[in-house]
Amino acid sequence: MPHLLGLQGMPPDRLRSLLARARDLIPHAERARPPLDTRRGASVVNLFFEDSTRTRLSFTLAARRLGADVADLTAAGSSASKGETLLDTALTVRALGASGIVLRHAMSGAAIAAARALDALPGPPCAILNAGDGRHEHPTQGILDALTIAEAHARLPDFNLGGLRIAILGDVANSRVARSDIAALTALGASVVCVGPPGLCPPSLRSLGCDTSHDLDAVLPDVDAVQSLRIQMERSPALASVRDYAAGYQLDLARSARMKPGAVVLHPGPMNRGVEITGDVADGPRSRILRQVTLGVAVRMACLAECLAR
Ligand code: NCD
User: Fold this and answer.
1) Strands 225-228, 264-266: pairing kind
2) Which end of the chain, C or N, has fewer beta carbons within 10 A?
3) Which residues are within 8 A (CB) of 93 and not within 5 positions of it... i.e. 6 or more apart?
């Protein structure tokens, strides 16, 4: 029973096969083709212990477009408030008949721990799909960002991102999206540079296989895509001054104008317009931000189709 826990260390064949499946499902995600029923009878449970708009809705819509049914549990209404552990909750949800659990949790490693708990005790097949665990990983986001960049640069046939340089900008230290992006993009042959102030973009990130820089204006003319990240105030409320941050690192129209022709702007959302990115860039011609959202449905269809037992 495959789980989807992270992209670090994922065999490249599996990553490419998920991307290829997602590419082929784009017309279904766009509703240009009707829903499928290839996972009819499967039950997906969304277990979200942190807030979400895009990820939760897109897993829900993706599951429905495969014919599966979906139930939702959020921290607020769950027995977590009565002291039930995450692992007991996961075992309970499997015993209720779930064939897949989409899990978001504030603790790094939560998805791995839940998968181990399920695998350690006998029970019907039930996959854990990590929808974001603390600062660790957000694998479906990493795959959809790679798919968006591949589409923008005409690399959909083989997902070879060789020759492309991609900047990940902002609060990289606290970002699970950045860790999954670095794993996916470097595995596909791109070079990645993380850019931000020293506190949010420490040189230790290089152990993930990327470069780091504190000088956005030096980096921008050379990159083919910028993934702008939200400052994770809930994880590290350390930002001294939004004004100082914006002066050095906000992606605004003047900076966007200095990017290469054809270079694109991404953001995983939720955006804080006027902090890490300005509205005119977010809505401008380089922006692929809403395309990321649409492709996210195709990616989650691909991941659910792979993980849900038939
Ligand atoms: C991100 C997350 O929750 O990790 N959002 C998302 O899933 N698209 C990024 C964020 O919260 O800033």
Assistant:
1) parallel
2) C
3) 45, 47, 73, 101, 126
Give the Å distance between the CA of 6 and the centre of ligand 1.
15
Domain membership flag for residue 132 = yes
Calculate the alpha carbon distances from 287 to 231, 249, 264, 284 in Å. Answer: 19, 17, 6, 6
Domain of residue 227: give its range. Answer: 139-289
| Residue located nearest, by CA, to atom 12 of ligand 1 | 230
- For residue 242, tell me if it sits in a domain: yes
How high is the mean pLDDT of the chain? 95
Average pLDDT over residues 292-306: 98
Both 196 and 181 in one domain: the answer is yes
For the entire predicted model, the pTM comes to 0.97
Indicate if the pLDDT at residue 144 is higher than 90.
yes
Q: Which two three-digit tokens encode residue 288?
A: 């692929």
Which of 137, 218, 211 lies closest to 178 in space, CA to CA?
Answer: 137
For 189-222, how does the pLDDT look when each residue is reduced to its tens digit (9 = 90+)? 999 999 999 999 999 999 999 999 999 999 999 9
Q: Are residues 30 and 81 in the same domain?
A: yes
Cα–ligand 1 centroid distance for 131 (angstroms) = 9
Could you tell me if 134 and 42 lie in one domain?
yes
Whether residue 143 sits in one domain with residue 50: no
User: Distance from the CA of 178 to the center of ligand 1, in angstroms?
Assistant: 10
The number of folded domains in the chain is 2
227 and 238 share one domain = yes
pLDDT (tens digit per residue) in 217-253: 999 999 999 999 999 888 766 677 888 999 999 999 9
Q: Show the tokens assigned to 180.
A: 């999954």
